[in-house]
Amino acid sequence: MTIRKTILDKGSDILNVYCTAGYPKLDNTGTILKSLSSQGVDLIELGMPYSDPLADGETIQRSSQIALQNGLTLDILFGQVKEAREHTSTPIIAMGYYNQMLQYGVERFLSRSHDSGIQGLIIPDLPMDIYERDYQHLFVKYNMEISFLITPLTSDERIHQADKLSTAFIYVVSQTSITGKQGVISIAQKKYFERIESMNLVSPRLIGFGIHDRMTYNQACKYSHGAIVGSAFIRSLDVENVEGSIETFVNGLR
Amino acid sequence: MTTNNKYAVSPEGYYGDFGGSYIPEMLYANIENLRKVYIEISQEPTFQEEFQVLLRDYVGRPSPLYLSKKLSQKHGAKIYLKREDLNHTGAHKINNTIGQILLAQRLGKQRIIAETGAGQHGVATATVCALMGLKCIVYMGEVDIARQAPNVARMRMLGAEVRPATSGSKTLKDATNEAIRDWINNAEDTHYIIGSAIGPHPYPDMVTRFQSVISEEIKYQLKEKTGNENPDYVVACVGGGSNAAGAFYHFLDHESTQLILAEAAGEGIGSGRSAATSILGTKGVIHGCKTLLMQTSDGQIVEPHSVSAGLDYPGIGPLHAHLIDIGRATVHPATDEEAIQAMLYLSREEGIIPALETAHALAILDKMTFNPKDTVVLCLSGRGDKDLNTIMNYLDQQ
User: Fold this and answer.
1) pLDDT tens by residue, A23-37
2) Are B306 and B275 in contact (CB under 8 A)?
3) For residues B231 and B311, what is the distance between their CA atoms, to the nearest angstrom?
4) Per-residue pLDDT tens for A117-137?
5) Rounded Cα–Cα distance for residues B204 and B265 (Å)
6) A9, A13, A45, A243: which is the annotated catalytic residue?
């Protein structure tokens, strides 16, 4: 099933959990994908570790650095996903940076992603106009969904552009910040979520950045189709008991 | 400011295949706003007047163009040094920070952030923030904080907060990452003063324009001294590339002026500890622009090495990448050792202590052959006081 259909079929309270491939140990990727799936999360965002992740806070930076030190490469990552795909069907959207895709070769990158069982991509530093001009046809060719980000500073015109171009969901960045902030949802954020909600966008919306506990998750779900939890999940992973810590974390959210 | 045509940035921010703006959505509004207004604001008469007066009375411009007899004799050509080291704060960096602080004021920003490698850009930013009464935060790699201690002290003295970048190689690349993250977190009240001709469009063009005063002065100074405004060679060191961009700008369309870049070979091109981007780099995206950078086949950015903190960067400005790509500029690498020797030579023969960055430009003169009639202008981008610790340690080991 596609990412979009998964979201639309359930309609609300979508839980999308972010994990970094190759972290905490190189071969934990498969275990984490399988456990998240058996805990019933709706979507998995799989981080492709990058040396210079500009949009990410300390937690995801550090997990990426460790994953790279563990020896993770894109080829290993694709192999891990392919192996895990034999045991789980939870849709996977991979998150990486434009330079990774560019160096690997965009078409090869899309083809390998597709073959391994990744259904969608989030590339935060790939501009929408460049995607539309150079890559949209390749994403179609390889059946790859894509999500674009919007923030409180994104103009209505660009929100509509993101709505038109996103084939998975619109990634609603909850605040103008990098990932990993902790705190409550402010009144200004609620107003922003309401503004986006009232725009009658075609694409489903998931709220991410700063969603770290049951309260922020529930609040995000009130204003959208669901939420993405990343840094809080990475922080919760117990290297000695990966599966147990995942169960505790997911149960703590809902 | 006159603009050249053939090598000018395209409306979308490209120099040939290089440049553009590859940034997360969180920065889009800021960058787009800058792109819309940077030319208009910087060409307003009141802006220009304030800029020119500050360059003259505060920075001390024009900087002298000095004929070095010793270097001329040694290399068999007329070698002029463009003395950017004599600017207030000791390097060319202040030309750009004066321009950008005036822009930030007009944009109503209250907080300034910057990245710095050698600390020269950090000092130049802290200086203009003190002058204009704006809050200043400078990101600097932990390794650079240790090797450029005098500049860290100067920034603090000037009232800036120096925040260590502790990720990656803990040098200029990582300081730039941290500054970009700070800007994402503080998009509305903060202006990011990038110090090199790097970053998303319009930064490379904006920094180049503010630095272009260097070549504007070279032109008329050389005309006064030799009767000809165009030299045969312009030589500059390149890390990100701001002094080279400024020294080249008004000669770009004058094709018979050869443009020469000196890059940091570190411990040698093949040593695994180098920052020779034009040789070791391939096309990719770093800090928001498409350019040449040192990376793995998986697109992971490689950690560079140079004894000089200002050149210790795995990328190069997109303008330079383009000039190299089409053969308009030539690059020569200089190793740590060659740069140190060139630094000692100029100190002992001319009584000028150049920055380690600049010393790379001096070092590559040895790799070139000149005709006795040639006129060479070398951009002496900064002074070397900040590097004395590095050099003393080196001499002690000899």
Assistant:
1) 999 999 999 999 999
2) yes
3) 25
4) 999 999 999 999 999 999 999
5) 23
6) A45
Q: What is the mean pLDDT of residues B287-313?
A: 95
B381 a catalytic residue: yes
Q: Is the dihedral angle over the CA atoms A27, A29, A32, A33 positive or is it negative? A: negative
What is the C-alpha end-to-end distance of chain A, expressed in Å? 24
Enter the tokens of residue A31.
């275990």
Cis peptide before A49 (omega within 30 of 0): no
Let me know: does A207 contact A18? Beta carbons within 8 Å. Answer: no
Cβ–Cβ below 8 Å for B286 and A74:
no
Answer whether B26 sits within 8 Å of A55, measured CB to CB. yes
Token output for A95: 């998150």
**A17, A229 in Cβ contact below 8 A?**
yes
Task: Write out pLDDT tens, residues A64-82.
Answer: 999 999 999 999 999 999 9
Confirm or reject contact between B67 and chain A (CB < 8 A): no
* Nearest chain A residue (CA) to B300: A51
The helix or strand, by DSSP H or E, that contains position B308, with its residue range, turns out to be none
Is residue B2 scored above 60 in pLDDT?
Answer: no
Cα separation, A73 vs A112, in Å, equals 13
Task: Return residues 115-174 of B near A (CB < 8 Å).
Answer: 167-168, 173
Complete DSSP assignment for B113-163 = EEEESSSHHHHHHHHHHHHHT-EEEEEEEHHHHHHTHHHHHHHHHTTPEEE
Q: How far apart are CA A163 and CA A202, in angstroms?
A: 6
- Would the pLDDT of B385 be above 70? yes
Is the complex ipTM more than 0.85?
yes
Query: In this complex, do B177 and A52 lie within 8 Å of one another by their Cβ atoms?
Result: yes
Instruction: Detail the DSSP E strand segments found in chain A.
Output: 14-20, 43-47, 92-95, 120-122, 145-146, 149-150, 170-173, 205-208, 226-229
Q: Note the CATH number of domain A3-253.
A: 3.20.20.70
Number of neighbours of residue B351 by Cβ within 10 angstroms: 8
Collapse the DSSP code of B227 into the 3-class scheme (helix H, G, I; strand E, B; otherwise coil) and give the result: coil
Mutate to test the interface with A, among B27, B173, B192, B300 (most CBs of A within 10 A): B300
Cβ-defined contact of B301 to A99 (cutoff 8 Å): yes
State which amino acid sits at residue B212. S
* Both structure tokens of B232: 């045969």
What angle is formed at CA A34 by the lines to CA A33 and CA A36, rounded to 5 degrees?
Answer: 65
Pull the structure tokens for residue A28. Answer: 């934990």
Catalytic residue among B82, B93, B109, B170: B93
The predicted model scores a pTM of 0.96
Strand partners, A207: A172, A227
